[in-house]
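User: Hi! Is it possible to get a structure for several chains at once, not just one? Here's what I have:
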Amino acid sequence: MSVAHPRADASQSRRAVARALPLAPATLLLLVFLAGPIVWSVYGAFTNTALSGAGAANSHFIGLDNFHKAFDSSAFRNSVVLTLVFTFLSAIVGQNLVGLCLALLMRAGSKVVRTLVGAFVVGAWVIPEVVAGYIWYAFLGKDGSLNAFFDSVGLGHQALLFSHPIVAVSIANIWRGTAFSMLVYSAALSEVPRELEEAAEVDGASGARRLWSVTLPLIRRSVTTNLMLITLQTLSVFGLIYTMTKGGPGTKSQTLPLYMYEQAFSFGQLGYGTALALVMLVVGAVFSLVYLRVLKTEI
Amino acid sequence: MATTMSRPVTAAAAPRSRTMHARSRAQKAVVNLVLLLIGAMFVVPLLWVLLASVNADAGLSVSWPGHPSLDNFKAVLDEETTFRPMRNGLLLCGSAAVLTLVASTLAAYPLSRYDTRYRKPFLLTILFSTGLPITAIMVPVYGLFVQINLVDTRIGTVLFLATTGLPFGIWLMKNFMDGVPVSLEEAAWTDGASSLQALRFVVLPLMWPGLAVVAIFTFIGMWGNFFVPFVLLLSPDKLPASVSIYTFFSQYGQVAYGQLAAYSLIYALPVVLLYLLLSRKLGGAFTLGGAVKG
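Assistant: Yes, the chains can be modeled jointly so their relative placement is included. Here is the combined structure:
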């Protein structure tokens, strides 16, 4: 027994290594290209690294200056507010509610209509974001289809891209992202036993009441998961806004990712841009932790 | 006897069920109408791209082409505008998707099969990273790439793209792999197969629909990704279609909208086809819905 022990230990640890080996390629990639940049951003955010000028030749530690600069800057505060508006309008209200409505309606609709509408909604989701950006630029622009329609019915021009660009990009994002919520809710609703809803109907509960007191509580976890995922996705939308408005006119649709891009790459302030990235990462990490708590029991 | 007994009951029930039937039919009609209305809102913006692509003098608004022609397609179908960016995109996204697929299959195997100490922390970290905004990582990644001389290299872009696909890829793959019973591998193990052989010859053939789902979704995600190649690649001859379509638009003072629409369609076509393939063969995106329902 005492002789066999070390040998068993050795073979056991060899087996443990052999079993962990397939994890190596993925772990290596994740460490170098995901963990690496995150760690670098924690350091870089406290330096004055720049693509040109003094910060390029001699970057050094400047403490919390980048963060002071950010929180003192009205452009930064503007971008945070716009990010919140964009996320609230397009994800939490738009995609979430339209997706839920579609999933609910589809259960009651006929098969042909269901397939057709599903294809349209998913079609908008599959299309690359730059193309989606052009489509909405063309639809909402000054000479776009919507204005042509408004003109023809005598409503006059509504230059949404100029007057309310953040609303315009939110509408485009609802169009593009609703399919995801619809799919998540359809999957969740397909597992709700019909008998429970029918029992409530027999008891005389109205449609809205049944939805609120029976159906929604049953898909509660899917609602949380969906809200979390679409919030995170919307937080980092870049291409759609960049193609539609480039953050403009002025800074009226410059969300945090666009402000970060401008500071880091157009103005070459990598250190400052990294500090902004860190702010975004922290916000994302907080949402991610909540998401983790929701799913934790399943692992 | 039985028929005479039941007759009064059916006679009384018939009108009631008929009105209920009529009501539910009316209800269904209303539901269908609302659905179609929402569907129309989703499809109308697409009309511009479809109509402008065959309209030689297309503007920004939807207009019926007077003389539909394929001139716009002919104009953009050349090496510089279409073929090279599409080839670049295929090369970048194809290699990155293969890399993601291989690395996540390998990683999913021990996570699905063995109950080790690192399993739970690893999975939690993976799940946590699926939530991190990749957009935010682009600035530090650029900083890192400058340090190690990877800016404007295909290999660097492929490696980073592959990494962005990994967290979700591993997570999906592990869930699909959990669906293959372990008992099947035990037979292979008794025959002396190593665990990687068991994975290759027993597990993977049984979960190919899962593999296809992960592969196609990874590729679609990368094909549409604009920000990563936009930041990491500089030379015009390396840019994939997602970025070149953007420069195509901003290069010209006078935008040829018809050509832009035609090029948009060409660029979007591969992912639309892949998606159709996916939903045909594998029962639709509900496979994905099942994986994220929580």
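Residues 67-296 of chain A form a domain with the MetI-like fold fold (CATH 1.10.3720.10). The mean pLDDT of chain A is 86.

User: Great, thank you!
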